[in-house]
């Protein structure tokens, strides 16, 4: 061997190799490449279509060999002879989704001593014309779904050939859930690492809301090669146009350089040269058939233009961008990015389109230091945006180093992402220096409504440790984050979220902090059982009253009522004569049932608010019971004119029926036709004695007051007495030494003396919750 490299270096003599000879084993047979004989090259395939293909088995043995392979006409092959085999392959749904099928020739051969399996494969295109995407309404979270958090499901693992990183998630117009991520070959330039490793953007699809996932397919495929020939695609982020159904997948387009090895931009006549080998390109793939097929292009010059001279490298931040659903700039597509400046640090920038993705441009770079303490500057990294309830945008960014590290940078834009202001650190959001996600829970909720203010945020909190992922909820446009729920124990890594068509939330993560992509699904009630932005009627107390007696108004109250929406109240099961005010929810009136026994009414009150743009009803119901005492004598038909009446005086205790240590103070009403009575102590209405609506009991030493008034159709006679009172003796005055216990049976009431046709028909029980007692009425 030579002492050094180069053909002119001197030859150095090495030692002689010695050892036992090693026998060389000859192969038994070989397979030819596969030749497709039928169905190749069709414009569109269907499941069940069959490819015909041939392959040849050639014996390399000196002995006869046995042959077992699909489509082979014989079971044996003579020495050095060949045999053509013809096979068929039926196209599957997975082949259609992948866009290619793999034809396989697998042959077992044996000479009686050795058994060998030979394999050849060939990929063939299985194009299909998929249904076109269409406009669809952006999904909103469903606040009515019960709490659940599914077990973490790994949808992709690394292998001995590639690493896995950087999840992104989206919902297609047909309802499918799309998950894309980096496929990073270990034999690439950076050994399975970040750009400029020759990575590919791949995707899996779930057609059942995340329960199962289909085969891996390619969005943009990289090429492992040497300098000048390699290319790759990294860090996916979806943006969905709900107006057209088209889906965009942004990613880094790398040639020979990425952030690890000093990229740069080269301008020619003021334009970015996107073919320059050290360029970090902005790449976008788009699909008009719900993510089945993709076309790709570079938009680096459109985004940066002459500003490229100030930066060394840029990347679209992975996860998910948005479409603006409300004015101003309704319909705008937005994707966040970050650029490394030659002067140091990263700054955020917004890429946007106002023509449904035909062209793309960008706003201004976020300020390097506006709002930062003196001597400090902002250092943005992966950043995401969401739309606020007033049409502004909120930006939320990772801080990898410098001022604000282990927290999040927050800013707002009132011009659709062109300029970013009010840049500050949100101390409510501790962070692991991690890529996080912020989304709006109800994207289509009308501006100014309560649901429009609800934001969700996913990240990890421990410094430099991307574990124990949490989801937080804000219901004031991100001013505060009072609700948090840990959704992962252990490695979490990057996270990204999307609201799914059923109103649940799908979240992708890196469960080993990298090299896997995992999926979980949860609901808003997983974060909080009682959602403060959802309308909820408060409990309504049961009511006891009397047929024919006007009730005091029942006031209905609620929480989570949206002041931006009109309210409508309704009630089911009210007794005849009672009504609910549709605007205020107040229940009032006079029961007119005519029941002869005590009757219970189960009443359901419902509050419904006006539509808020989500299509999810804002409604709440409560039930309560109305117990209605009967009127034994049905009310006669009203007599014409007004009748003058004299109220009967109530009966107070006397010598024949005294108050004792065991008989509590009482008063007994004597009904009068056309008169209603009220009974109070210290201004508070009394309840009647159970089983005797005309008798009232109260405490020793108290003064009871009875008042009479005429009901409709009657007047009190001139000079008639309308009020009576009586003060009960105290226990000391009665000489009682212990607290009396009520007798097991009440003392019978004296029989009334007035007109025998006049009968007590009802006596309202004093309600316990702000209802007015109305007394007894005789008709």
Automatic annotation (TrEMBL):
Compositional bias ranges of the Basic and acidic residues kind: 1-15, 742-754
Gene Ontology cellular component annotations, sorted alphabetically: cytoplasm; membrane
Catalytic reaction(s) noted: Hydrolysis of alpha-(2->3)-, alpha-(2->6)-, alpha-(2->8)- glycosidic linkages of terminal sialic acid residues in oligosaccharides, glycoproteins, glycolipids, colominic acid and synthetic substrates
GO molecular function: calcium ion binding; exo-alpha-sialidase activity
EC top class, as a word: hydrolase
Pfam families registered for this protein in UniProt: BNR_2 (PF13088), He_PIG (PF05345)
Annotated region described as Disordered, given as residue ranges: 1-24, 731-758
Residues annotated as signal peptide: none
InterPro entries membership: Cadherin-like_sf, Ig-like_fold, Sialidase, Sialidase_fam, Sialidase_sf
Similarity comment text for this entry: Belongs to the glycosyl hydrolase 33 family.
PANTHER family registered for this protein in UniProt: EXO-ALPHA-SIALIDASE (PTHR10628:SF30), SIALIDASE (PTHR10628)
Protein name: exo-alpha-sialidase
Gene this protein is translated from: nanH
């Amino acid at each position: 061997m030579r002492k050094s490299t180069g053909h002119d270096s001197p030859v150095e003599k090495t030692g002689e190799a010695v050892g036992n000879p090693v026998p060389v084993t000859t192969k038994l047979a070989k397979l030819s490449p596969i030749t497709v004989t039928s169905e190749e090259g069709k414009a569109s395939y269907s499941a069940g279509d069959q490819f015909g293909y041939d392959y040849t088995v050639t014996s390399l043995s000196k002995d006869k060999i046995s042959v077992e392979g699909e489509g082979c006409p014989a079971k044996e092959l003579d020495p050095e002879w060949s045999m053509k085999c013809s096979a068929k392959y039926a196209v599957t749904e997975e082949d259609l989704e992948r866009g290619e099928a793999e034809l396989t020739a697998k042959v077992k051969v044996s000479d009686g001593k050795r058994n060998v399996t030979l394999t050849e494969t060939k990929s063939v295109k299985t194009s299909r014309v998929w249904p076109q995407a269409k406009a669809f309404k952006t999904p909103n979270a469903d606040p009515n779904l019960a709490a659940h958090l599914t077990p973490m499901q790994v949808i992709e693992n690394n292998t001995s050939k590639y690493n896995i990183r950087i999840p992104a998630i989206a919902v297609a117009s047909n309802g499918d859930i799309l998950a894309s991520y980096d496929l990073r070959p270990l034999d690439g330039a950076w050994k399975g690492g970040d750009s400029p490793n020759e990575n590919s953007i791949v995707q899996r699809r779930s057609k059942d809301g995340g329960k199962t996932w289909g085969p891996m397919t390619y969005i943009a495929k990289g090429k492992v090669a040497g300098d000048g020939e390699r290319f790759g695609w990294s860090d996916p982020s979806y943006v969905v146009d709900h107006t057209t159904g088209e889906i965009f997948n942004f990613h880094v387009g790398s040639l020979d350089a990425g952030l690890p090895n000093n990229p740069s931009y080269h301008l020619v006549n003021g334009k970015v040269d996107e073919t320059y080998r050290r360029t970090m390109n902005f790449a976008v793939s788009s699909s008009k058939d719900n993510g089945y097929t993709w076309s790709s292009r570079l938009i680096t010059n459109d985004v940066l233009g002459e500003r490229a001279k100030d930066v060394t490298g840029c990347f679209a931040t992975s996860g998910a961008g948005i479409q603006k659903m409300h004015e101003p700039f309704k319909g705008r597509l937005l994707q966040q990015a970050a650029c490394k400046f030659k002067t140091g640090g990263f700054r955020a920038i917004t890429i946007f389109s106002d023509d449904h993705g035909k062209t793309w441009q960008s706003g201004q770079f976020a300020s390097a230091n506006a709002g930062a303490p003196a001597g400090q500057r902002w250092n943005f990294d992966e950043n995401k945006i969401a739309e606020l309830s007033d049409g502004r945008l909120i930006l939320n960014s990772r801080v990898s180093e410098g001022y604000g590290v282990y927290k999040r940078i927050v800013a707002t834009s009132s011009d659709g992402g062109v300029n970013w202001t009010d840049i500050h650190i949100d101390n409510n959001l501790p962070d692991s220096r991690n890529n996080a996600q912020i989304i709006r829970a109800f994207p289509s909720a009308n501006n100014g409504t309560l649901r429009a203010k609800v934001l969700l945020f996913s990240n990890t909190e421990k410094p430099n440790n991307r574990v124990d992922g949490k989801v937080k909820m804000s219901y004031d446009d991100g001013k505060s984050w009072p609700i948090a729920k840990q959704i992962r124990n252990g490695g979490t890594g990057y996270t990204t979220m999307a609201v799914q068509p059923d109103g649940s939330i799908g979240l992708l993560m890196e469960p080993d902090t990298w090299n896997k992509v995992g999926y979980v699904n949860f609901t808003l009630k997983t974060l909080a059982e009682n959602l403060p932005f959802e309308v909820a009627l408060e409990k309504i107390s049961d009511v006891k009253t009397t047929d024919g007696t006007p009730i005091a108004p029942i006031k209905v109250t609620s929480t989570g009522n949206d002041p931006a929406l009109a309210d409508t109240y309704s009630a089911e099961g009210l007794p005849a004569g009672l009504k609910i005010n549709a605007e205020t929810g107040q229940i009032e009136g006079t029961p007119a049932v005519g029941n002869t026994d005590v009757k219970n009414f189960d009443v359901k009150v419902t509050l419904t608010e006006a539509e808020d743009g989500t299509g999810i009803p804002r409604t709440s119901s409560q039930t309560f019971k109305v117990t209605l005492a009967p009127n034994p004598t049905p009310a006669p038909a009203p007599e014409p004119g007004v009748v003058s009446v004299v109220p009967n005086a109530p009966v107070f205790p006397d010598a024949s029926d005294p108050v004792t240590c065991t008989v509590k103070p009482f008063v007994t009403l004597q009904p009068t036709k056309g008169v209603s009575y009220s009974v109070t102590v210290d201004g508070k209405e009394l309840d009647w004695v159970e089983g005797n609506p005309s008798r009232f009991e109260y405490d020793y030493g108290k003064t009871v007051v009875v008042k009479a008034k005429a009901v409709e159709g009657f007047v009190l006679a001139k000079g008639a007495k309308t009020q009576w009172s009586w003060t009960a003796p105290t226990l000391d005055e009665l000489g009682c030494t212990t607290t009396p216990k009520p007798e097991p049976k009440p003392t019978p009431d004296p029989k009334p003396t007035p007109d025998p046709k006049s009968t007590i028909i009802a006596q309202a029980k004093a309600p316990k919750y702000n209802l007015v007692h109305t007394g007894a009425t005789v008709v």
